[in-house]
Amino acid sequence: MDGWMQILLTVFSSVLASSGLWAYITKRAEKKDLKTEMLIGLGHDRIIYLGMSYIDRGWITSDEYENLYEYLYKPYEKMGGNGSAKRIMNEVNELPIHKSQYKEKANHEDD
After folding, report:
1. How far apart (Å, rounded) are the C-alpha atoms in residues 42 and 45?
2. Is the pTM higher than 0.70?
3. Low-confidence winner among 13-17, 35-39, 86-90 (lowest mean pLDDT)
4. Is 23 buried (19+), middle (13-18) or exposed (0-12) by CB count in 10 A?
5. How many domains are there within the chain?
């Protein structure tokens, strides 16, 4: 049994130390980094676009603010984004918040 453990340990060590394995791990890490960069870029673009449209309009609804802040800006910030998107969010935070204009349609099944 001791011989099998030595063989398994040797094989495991060889695979772990092989350049192919490390190249694979490095490539996966780079790919993940590129995806993260792309997500940050897309989040930045959307925050800037929406934020500027609300600033130009002069007000924001509570639903729009929740969407922008909770679902775009907070994840963007956690992923490492900052800069101009933060400045836009600071300006958006100063806007008056209007009641959301969305109204559910009445259920007319009883008609």
Report:
1. 5
2. no
3. 13-17
4. exposed
5. 1
